[in-house]
Amino acid sequence: MTDEQLLRYSRHLLLEEIDVAGQQRLLAAHALVVGAGGLGSPVALYLGTAGVGRITLVDDDVVDLTNLQRQIAHDRSRLGLPKAESAAQAIRRINPDPRLRAIVRRADAALLDELVADADVVLDCCDNYATRQLINAACVRRRKPLVSGAAIAFDGQLGVFDLREAASPCYACVFPPQARVDAAACATMGVFAPLVGIIGSMQAAQALQLIVRCGQPLSARLLMLDARTMHVDTLRLSRTAQCSVCGSGSGA
Q: Residue 215: how many CB atoms within 10 A of its CB?
């Protein structure tokens, strides 16, 4: 690390669980962030400020005035700009270290398979159930850890799905691809502004822990937050043998 990096990351270096070795792992790591909106904003900013060496941002949407109530990576000067590019600009203004790649297109199966293969950790910050399933399928194929977050109205959830651990389920074990899901959107349901910050920040924390290999990530657990009361429930999850994505009959 350079002298500037030693100073910039000094508060990490003071932590016994991170220290120099852990910070070097962060500087060498590649994080893939799918979605640069409400959840992706704090994720991108915290991964960038923490010194993750490569960050790929994928989003096909543009910054709109209605986003600014909660999507803190964007501002009025970037209205109409693709969110992936806007988030990359926000990171650069804070930390010049990360190598950033902004991909302005919808995350389809082919793109995700290519990007996940080159990532150390994948963060699902999207708001589309079908895309979440595609992200999970790519992570299962490539055996990459997935940090998944969701937030709508006052309700948030967070889980880590890491098939490098034998007992860990994949996202589809818990939320089957064939399930009928109402496509709730912020435009119709609303979302409490700080909620995406809370869940997104926790997603970033989980990703950093996975990279540094410290603490106990939420693997095989699902955290659910009710921001009306700040009540938190944590559910234990188990792998489903019949899962169509990671189960015995899936070919995974």
A: 12
pTM, two decimal places: 0.95
**Residues ≥6 apart with Cβ < 8 Å to 207:** 31, 43, 47, 52, 121, 123, 147
| Cα-to-chain-centroid distance, residue 113 | 16
Angstrom CA distances, 53 to 44, 129, 211, 215, stand at: 12, 29, 11, 21
Domain boundaries along the sequence of the chain:
3-236
Identify residue 59 by its one-letter amino acid code: D
Residue pair 248/241 in contact (Cβ under 8 Å)? The answer is yes
Separation CA 61–CA 106 (nearest Å): 8
Amino acid at 68: L
How confident is the model over 56-114, as pLDDT tens digits?
A: 999 999 999 999 999 999 999 999 999 999 999 999 999 999 999 999 999 999 999 99
Q: Which residues pair with 54 in a beta bridge?
A: 30, 99
59-98 as b/e, with b when 16 or more CB fall inside 10 Å? Answer: beebbeeebeebbbbbeeebeeebbbbbbbbbbeeebebb
Which of these CATH numbers, 1.20.1420.30, 3.40.50.2300, 3.40.50.720, 3.60.140.10, describes 3-236? Answer: 3.40.50.720
Cα 121 to Cα 206: distance, rounded to the nearest angstrom: 10
